[in-house]
């Protein structure tokens, strides 16, 4: 059995001799239990006798362009490609794969939408019935203390101003984009996750493979096992959204992040409420910073009154994943925030109808990687075009997809191929982006998030010379990888959270139930561990098991070993809402999120 490497690793300095003995016992016990990770990405099937003789050939199909991800970026790229093909009377096969069972079912956002890109993509958006039903009529920004609210004037020119924007259910907008794409002739494949990037012999991207189905929880093939299919293309556009699973592989393969800062992230938690009609103010937008987060934790809230025929409000809470206290629980901070008198007064008498969570990029301009490589390119929140102070990335994601399509179209339809590699390389996309309003906008706000790490913390853009208009000059560095920011539990104070009251605040499991999340139970957990022993030997020992708190769906639980002499990690993979927080924040970087069987995950209804 394996023995922990504590004596030689850098984290050993945090461990006392007593803890070392306890830990050694725990770890040695845990290796005797059954495997946590059974996925073939960790335990290759070619070495597994249970897979001997299983047919592993894949059906191959060919398109001109393959797009991974049916979010705002992927769909805008697909639509623009077909608009151009129709205009120039060219045949163009565009295939888009989406891991959700329906287009829009994995979309979670605020969302207050800056409509520029929608208007550019469809100047006749109104006639086409775009679900932009609520224009912003009131814009409120506050700094919260535990009992009070300090209003901040929304001066013209501030990035947080929402004049001219629309409050939307982004899932509905994405569904509508899907309908437009289908009408134009894009082939949409919801329920198919892209599990693997395929490469030509010259190293350029050849396309993707969708995931295999019919693998049992223990990693063995079931009778119904079916190999995924290969989708080849002249070029593949990756629009997986924040912290894409394939993008992670591409960063390594093509060294795309060598000249940028690390990407940093936040987790956003959201609920949808039906409120008392008397309190409903359609078109009102509220944002806050401050309580319940302390000065050293980046984050804030949003509360939007929708105008969709019912008294609906969308509310949520965003916490920067560079927080340091392993006892912080973003879900419980969100629940606590709803009890602020200024928030609770809107919710009292109402009831909650939706819940979900998703990570969002916070690195901004400094963290944008190289965007193009032979055979492919990155669009939307996958490389990260989020405008952080605005908490808006939909308009930039859409525009990046459109610019990618415009750069790709002449090359894929050219009579002779203009590429030295088998997969087309289109660096013109990066150039187009640099000359677009996306670049200008992200450049203008590049130092707002990094300026958080000063005396004023979250309030800095509003209270100090760190006001956006002063935050100019060279791009400042982000704080490093979020995974490296946690302090050992022994150096931190546990946080006492109030119990949920079942009216305004709720527990985790009843919340997850509202996300409609489901996965086939008999499949290997898609939360894979590079080393099954590390959660107990490192995460629990040093950080007191922070994954139990940062996962917004209760997927990770430390439970007593059956033998009674230690703990083990239990992964409730069926609950996973695909937010990607664990892959980002795990202090050991031992968790690798991979795609589950296609169609699994949340079933958001217009979040
Ligand atoms: C809490 C929160 C609040 C926000 N508020 C706002 C706001 O008010 N205004 C605003 O403009 N923006 C907001 N954003 C940001 C906005 O939602 C994103 O910028 C936008 O959704 C990015 O679009 P995208 O297409 O790049 O990625 P996504 O919307 O994430 O779409 C990616 C799609 O790809 C699919 N996918 C991923 N991997 C695979 C795979 N391997 N195979 C197949 N399919 C895959 C996913 O299921 C998903 O449907 C918010 C985000 C969050 C989390
Ligand atoms: S397991 Fe990871 S990706 Fe899934 S909900 Fe929890 S933190 Fe998010």
UniProtKB/TrEMBL annotation:
Domain 4Fe-4S ferredoxin-type: 567-596
Entries under Gene3D superfamilies matching the protein: 3.30.70.20, 3.30.9.90, FAD/NAD(P)-binding domain
Purpose of the protein: Accepts electrons from ETF and reduces ubiquinone.
GO molecular function: 4 iron, 4 sulfur cluster binding; electron-transferring-flavoprotein dehydrogenase activity; metal ion binding
Catalysed reactions, semicolon-separated: a ubiquinone + reduced [electron-transfer flavoprotein] = a ubiquinol + oxidized [electron-transfer flavoprotein] + H(+)
Cofactor note: Binds 1 [4Fe-4S] cluster.
Lineage of source species: Eukaryota, Metazoa, Chordata, Craniata, Vertebrata
Subunit structure as annotated in this protein's UniProt entry: Monomer.
Cofactor(s) it depends on: FAD; [4Fe-4S] cluster
GO cellular component: mitochondrial inner membrane
PANTHER family in the record: ELECTRON TRANSFER FLAVOPROTEIN-UBIQUINONE OXIDOREDUCTASE, ELECTRON TRANSFER FLAVOPROTEIN-UBIQUINONE OXIDOREDUCTASE, MITOCHONDRIAL
PROSITE patterns cross-referenced by the UniProt entry: 4FE4S_FER_2
Annotated compartments: Mitochondrion inner membrane
Alphabetic keyword roster: Acetylation, Electron transport, FAD, Flavoprotein, Iron, Iron-sulfur, Membrane, Metal-binding, Mitochondrion, Mitochondrion inner membrane, Oxidoreductase, Phosphoprotein, Transit peptide, Transport, Ubiquinone
Protein name per the record: Electron transfer flavoprotein-ubiquinone oxidoreductase
UniProt EC number: 1.5.5.1
């Amino acid at each position: 059995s394996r023995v922990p490497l504590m004596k030689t690793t850098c984290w050993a300095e945090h461990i006392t001799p007593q803890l070392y003995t306890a830990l050694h016992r725990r770890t040695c016990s845990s290796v005797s239990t059954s495997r946590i990770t059974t996925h073939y990405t960790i335990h290759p099937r070619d070495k597994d006798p249970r897979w001997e003789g299983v047919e592993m050939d894949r059906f191959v199909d060919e398109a001109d362009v393959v797009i991974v991800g049916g979010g705002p970026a992927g769909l805008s790229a697909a639509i623009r490609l077909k608009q151009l093909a129709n205009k120039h009377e060219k045949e163009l096969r565009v295939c888009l794969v989406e891991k959700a069972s329906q287009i829009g079912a994995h979309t979670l956002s605020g969302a207050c939408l800056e409509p520029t890109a929608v208007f550019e993509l469809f100047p006749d958006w109104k006639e086409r019935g775009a679900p932009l039903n609520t224009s912003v009529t009131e814009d409120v920004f506050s700094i919260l203390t535990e009992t009070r609210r300090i209003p901040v004037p929304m001066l013209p020119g501030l990035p947080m101003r929402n004049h001219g924007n629309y409050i939307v259910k982004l899932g509905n907008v994405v569904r509508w984009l899907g309908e437009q794409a289908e009408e134009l002739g894009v082939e949409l494949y919801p329920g198919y996750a892209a599990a693997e990037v395929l490469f030509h012999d010259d190293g350029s991207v050849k396309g993707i493979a969708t995931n295999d189905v019919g693998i049992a929880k223990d990693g063995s093939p079931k009778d119904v096992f079916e190999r995924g299919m290969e989708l080849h293309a002249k070029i593949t556009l990756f629009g997986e959204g924040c912290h894409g699973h394939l993008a992670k592989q591409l960063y390594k393969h093509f060294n795309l992040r060598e000249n940028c800062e690390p990407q940093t992230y936040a987790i956003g938690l959201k609920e949808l409420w039906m409120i008392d009609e008397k309190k409903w103010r359609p078109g009102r937008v509220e944002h806050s910073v401050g309580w319940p987060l302390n000065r050293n934790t980046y984050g804030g809230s949003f509360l939007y009154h929708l105008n969709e025929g019912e008294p609906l409000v969308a509310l949520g809470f965003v916490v920067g994943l560079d927080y340091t206290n392993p006892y912080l629980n973003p879900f419980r901070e969100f629940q606590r925030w709803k009890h602020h008198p200024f928030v609770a007064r809107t919710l009292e008498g109402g009831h909650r109808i939706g819940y979900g969570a998703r990570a969002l990029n916070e690195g901004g301009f400094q963290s944008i990687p190289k965007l193009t490589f032979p055979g492919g390119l990155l669009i939307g929140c996958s490389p990260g075009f989020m405008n952080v102070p605005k908490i808006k990335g939909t308009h930039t994601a859409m525009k990046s997809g459109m610019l990618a399509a415009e750069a790709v179209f002449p090359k894929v339809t050219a009579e002779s191929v203009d590429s030295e590699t088998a997969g087309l390389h289109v660096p013109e996309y990066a150039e187009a982006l640099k000359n677009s309003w996306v670049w200008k906008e992200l450049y203008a706000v590049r130092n707002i998030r990094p300026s958080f790490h000063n005396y004023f913390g979250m309030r800095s853009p509003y209270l100090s010379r760190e006001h956006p208009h002063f935050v100019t000059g060279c791009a400042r560095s982000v704080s490093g990888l979020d995974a490296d920011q946690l302090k050992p539990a022994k150096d931190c104070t546990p946080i006492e959270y109030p119990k949920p009251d079942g009216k305004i605040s709720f527990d985790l499991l009843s919340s997850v139930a509202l996300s409609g999340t489901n996965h086939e139970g008999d499949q290997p957990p898609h939360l894979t561990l590079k080393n099954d022993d590390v959660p107990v030997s490192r995460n629990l020992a040093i950080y007191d098991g922070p994954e139990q708190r940062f996962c917004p769906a209760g997927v990770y639980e430390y439970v007593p070993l059956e033998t009674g002499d230690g703990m083990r990690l239990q992964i409730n993979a069926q609950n996973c809402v695909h937010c990607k927080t664990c892959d980002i924040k795990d202090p050991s970087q031992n968790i690798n999120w991979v795609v589950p069987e296609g169609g699994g995950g949340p079933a958001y209804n217009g979040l």
